[in-house]
Amino acid sequence: MARTAIGCEAVVGSLTPSKKREYRFTNRLQEGKRPLYAVVFNFMDYRYFNVFATVGGNRSFVGHGDSINEIRSQPLKASLVVSASKDESIRLWNVHSGICILIFAGAGGHRNEVLSVDFHPSDIYRVASCGMDNTVKIWSMKEFWTYVEKSFTWSDIPSKFPTKYVQFPIFIASVHSNYVDCNRWLGDFILSKSVDNEIVLWEPKMKEQCPGEGTADILQKYPVPECDIWFIKFSCDFHYNSAAIGNREGKIYVWELQTSPPVLTAKLSHPQSKSPIRQTAMSFDGSTILSCCEDGTIWRWDAVATET
């Protein structure tokens, strides 16, 4: 288990908006009356960067033992997706062949629901996950990569594929003291959030000879008022210049990610947006922000063009 480093104070951002980029409300859709838990833009195919999808009901890959809390695509190999489930596992899939390649669970796995998972942006072998056991775990697929390659040439039915268990992560961090419901890689750093009214940026420092051990250096904190209920997830634009996150009062906070100390770009609110925002989605360049809410609504905000 990684220790949180002592003696280095995290830099905390100010809640005074810089107004470097302003957004205006442009549209609202009512997608039924059921809560919406996820919204995401397509970043995999440049022809469809303006296409987004929402999720509100329970659906599952055949193979998980319970509901799925998040699905992420591998940016370097689009056929691979990873899913985080209530059944305490993370699973790697080949969507072209329908094969479940790897199951990250077991002796060193999560001890409660896995709420979020993310592929490393440049290290194709690395995955980060977090969940209701209050931990963030980093996994490596390097020694199991032959199974990934085999999934692309497998000619038998998917259920006969020799799915492999990955039981031990290479790093475990307890950066938060409560459920961790969202994590994203920012280069080799990790952005994660719990129910503590903030997003935390930290650096995992691993001990090469001691898998699972090391330190977690907390670098920056991005405050998000009234964000003290679980399953509220943030999103980033394609280049990770900004992050947007909602709260339980229907407001959105937009943070710059490439500055220190953190800079709050904008705070978005509307008199009729009162329902908890479960997830936001930033477009490719961050010029559009979508939010999906507990009351089944989708809200759209667009950046205001600056005068030249």
Can you walk me through this structure?
- With 308 residues, the protein is mainly β.
- It is globular, with a radius of gyration of 19 Å.
- A hairpin with a 6-residue loop joins β10 and β11 (126-131).
- It has one helix at 145-151, and strands at 3-4, 11-12, 23-30, 38-41, 52-55, 68-73, 80-85, 90-94, 99-104, 114-119, 126-131, 136-140, 164-166, 171-173, 182-186, 189-193, 198-206, 214-223, 235-236, 242-246, 252-256, 263-268, 277-282, 288-293, 297-303.
- It contains one helix and 25 strands.
- Strands 1, 2, 15, 16, 17 and 18 form a six-stranded mixed β-sheet that branches.
Task: Output the keywords.
2% helix; 6-stranded mixed sheet; 308 residues; mainly beta
Write the layout of secondary structure elements.
Layout: E1 3-4, E2 11-12, E3 23-30, E4 38-41, E5 52-55, E6 68-73, E7 80-85, E8 90-94, E9 99-104, E10 114-119, E11 126-131, E12 136-140, H1 145-151, E13 164-166, E14 171-173, E15 182-186, E16 189-193, E17 198-206, E18 214-223, E19 235-236, E20 242-246, E21 252-256, E22 263-268, E23 277-282, E24 288-293, E25 297-303
